[in-house]
Design goal:
The chain is of the alpha/beta class. Helices cover 53% and strands 8% of the residues. It starts with a helix and ends with a helix. The structure holds adenosine-5'-diphosphate and magnesium ion.
């Protein structure tokens, strides 16, 4: 690279901002630095092995494109995990401050929620990476961290896991975990008892404030007013704030605009319903936790048929195990299929039938295309997206293997299918338009 490589690297990064969402940029790129010892090969310092893996597996095309545009060449890149040399703010935070006298029990954290037992997959890896960054660098990386997503997808788990990890690192840390209702009730009670001073001391002096389900603050004017001050005071001294919600701040009705803009001012990440692989991994983890042995075949069967959030998935697994043990039955693929057959309607998204031809016809008709357009060789823009949606639905919803999908789609290679499925999963997490299309396509399929 020509002179002043660091500056050139900044330009490469700047250029990437056009290709990825803001959250993705912050998580995967913003902390990288170019090592001055780079010579020919670019040695890029990254904050963790997790970031390195994701850069390698997903972002190389984007990085290479940007290097080509900015540097006019694509030099080889070597990522080095080196948190000390990455680009974080070097502010002193209260997290380095001397110990408080604080009873950890006050934090209300449930020790069962840990980073270790949080299963990471495409549906939640952004939120997971953001949480890791907060643990490494609380108060300065992303403040507030705003985690949103539907019910049962792991928001509370992840938020508390950050608390538990930080508590492990610094046992005297003052951490408060509460729901927004608890915050409100505490506040109202403090007014009634003329103890607002105590309330303020409690909430405005903690090092880490975790408020779960912040959407319930909607329409509570005086609580919002109070929370605004709590928030500002904590943020002002680099205390970390993490909030969860079932929706983005701009969709929370009757939320003061100044609060909405504060909530959006850090990093917002979402968690989606887990994809098939993550569902299998979650089921496996829950079996391990409960020390129950269930074969992979059966876990995959359940994951393929119950397309829902982690909470419901865990509930279903337990029901299946219990119903079998009540009947003194052994868990076999046949008995599980029978159970699922009788109980399948309870899952929130009905799985589609595995008639792949019908599915393909349905997808083509939704997009006003012919099935042969999807299976054919043409790669026009109008065909690529529907084709990827077909790959995704056949894989995720119908449980068809990559090779088989390749055959169905006119003899495509299984790596092409894998790439297509991953691409769609990726864009689905940040592109509301794709999410909407997927829902509509699935609805369309369920009517044919
Ligand atoms: P939410 O707060 O989003 O409604 P929770 O955090 O309460 O969801 O998660 C519901 C249940 O599912 C909890 O028992 C939690 O431990 C489990 N769970 C959710 N996501 C995961 C995951 N990625 N790995 C392991 N367990 C998970
Ligand atoms: Mg929750």
């Amino acid at each position: 690279m020509v002179d002043n490589p660091q500056k050139q690297w900044s330009k490469v990064l700047e250029n990437i901002k056009d290709s990825v969402s803001g959250s993705n940029y912050k998580i995967w790129f913003s902390q990288t630095t170019l090592d001055p010892t780079s010579n020919g090969t670019l040695i890029v310092n990254v904050p963790s092995a997790f970031v390195k893996d994701n850069l390698l597996s997903k972002y190389m095309p984007i990085l290479e494109k940007s290097m080509l545009e900015v540097l006019g060449e694509v030099p080889p890149v070597d990522f080095r995990v080196n948190p000390a040399k990455t680009n974080k703010q070097e502010e002193e935070t209260i997290f380095n401050a001397p110990a408080h006298t604080f009873n950890p029990a006050m934090s209300n954290l449930n020790p069962k929620y840990t980073m270790q037992n949080f299963v990471v997959g495409l549906s939640n890896n952004l939120a997971y990476a953001a949480s890791q960054a907060v643990i490494q660098n609380p108060g300065t990386s992303y403040n507030p961290l705003f985690i949103y997503g539907g019910t049962g997808v792991g928001k509370t788990h992840l938020m508390q896991a950050v608390g538990n990890a930080l508590l492990e690192k610094s046992p005297n840390l003052k951490i408060i975990y509460c729901s927004s209702e608890k915050y409100m009730n505490d506040f109202i009670e403090s007014i009634q008892n003329k103890k607002t001073g105590d309330f303020r001391t409690k909430y405005r002096t903690c090092d880490l404030l975790l408020v779960d389900d912040i959407q319930f603050i909607s329409g509570r004017d005086s609580t919002q007013e109070e929370f605004f001050h709590t928030f500002n005071e904590l943020q002002g001294k680099n205390s970390q704030i993490i909030l969860t919600s079932d929706r983005v701040p701009s969709d929370i009705q009757k939320l003061e605009p100044r609060l909405a803009s504060r909530f959006q001012g850090g990093l917002m990440v979402d968690i989606q319903i887990p994809d098939r692989d993550t569902r299998v991994a979650i089921l496996r983890a829950k079996c391990q936790e409960k020390r129950t042995n269930v074969s992979d075949e059966i876990l995959e069967l359940i994951a393929e048929n119950i397309i829902t959030n982690a909470r419901e998935l865990e509930g279903k697994l337990m029901q299946i195990i219990q119903s079998h043990s009540l009947l003194g039955q052994e868990l076999t693929a046949e008995s599980v299929v029978k159970y699922l057959g009788a109980n399948i309607s309870v899952s929130i998204n009905k799985p589609l039938s595995i008639d792949s031809k019908k599915v393909l016809n349905g997808i083509a008709s939704y997009f006003n295309l012919k099935t042969s357009d999807l299976t054919g060789p043409r790669r026009n823009k109008e065909l690529v997206n529907p084709r990827q949606i077909a790959m995704y639905i056949l894989y995720e919803e119908c449980g068809v293997a990559f090779e088989k999908i390749g055959d169905i789609l006119g003899g495509r290679d299984h790596t092409t299918i894998m790439h297509g499925v991953n691409k769609l999963k990726e864009s689905q997490t940040r592109d509301r338009e794709i999410q909407r299309t997927l829902i509509e396509v699935k609805q369309h399929l369920s009517t044919i």
